[in-house]
Amino acid sequence: MGPVLCLVSAACFGAMAIFGKLAYDAGVSPQALLLVRFALAAALLGMVLVLRPGLRRMEPGPRRPAPSDRAAAGRGRVLATAIGLGAVGYAAQATLFFSALQVMDASLLSLIFYSYPVLVTVVAVLLGRDRLTRGRSAALVAASAGTLLVLLGAGGVSFHPLGALMAFGTALTYTVYILVAESVVHRLPPVVLSTLVMTGAAGTLGVRALVTGGVDLDFRLSGWFWLACIAVVSTVVAMLTFFAGLKRIGPSNAAILSTFEPVVTTALAALTLGESLTPVQLAGGVLVLSSVVVLQLRPARTRPPAAPLPDRPGPTVHEATSPARDSAAEPTRVAP
Q: How many CB atoms lie under 10 A from the CB of residue 279?
């Protein structure tokens, strides 16, 4: 289920670019999009936790010791880290991404941003959280090459130095975000973690809106519909499935499978916006999907040799020659 959840998350995140473009057409500004997105997602997740209290508890596991002062302090640090993931990491990543999108082409922005699977894998290996196996290396190469073909197949792009710097900052920020999230994802239920992250991001963006004079929410009704799609599909569902998948397969595999996102974006653009898919982009999509297959391959394991049976005395003459019988029903008679 880990790879499936990461692919569902990538598909939901991939749809956000389409929803965002349609929201922009309805008069929504980038600042309004970010604030409404995170605030609405936090409210929806909070309602889910109120209606389903069972989602606040961790999955059943081994018996845990009674809570102590040290354990309470540790839980406080975990909660603070989860809020910081949204208030610092996710808010900064989203702000850098949409700021870069205003000054550079989306394809080049995505190309630079999707260097983060390589960064996540390298840093996770250096930190000892993952091993750079042959299968993982092959999947990383296939996913990166496929992403390159998908994005470059869109045609020529213009280079903007400041935009490129912000795009690379987005990749670095998301790398740190994934690695920090992996350290707390085993200690909080996915819904609780997602709620805290969304609340932290909404708080940061809300404070920024107050400092800068607020955001313009006077746009068409269709804009609210696309914002709702971004909040529900590309935020709530995307975050829940990402954290659940990250918990099962680790940061490197989750980052590699996230390269499915630009494939989804390109395909949806072809279906909804009338854009055409080139043979180069189709080949890139096949490469990205092949990385999913490679990650599922497991090396054949040799069966360990069977443990030798304990020594026991050989059968007596009577045991060897008499038929088997239930010793509980009839005791064994020994000849005088």
A: 9
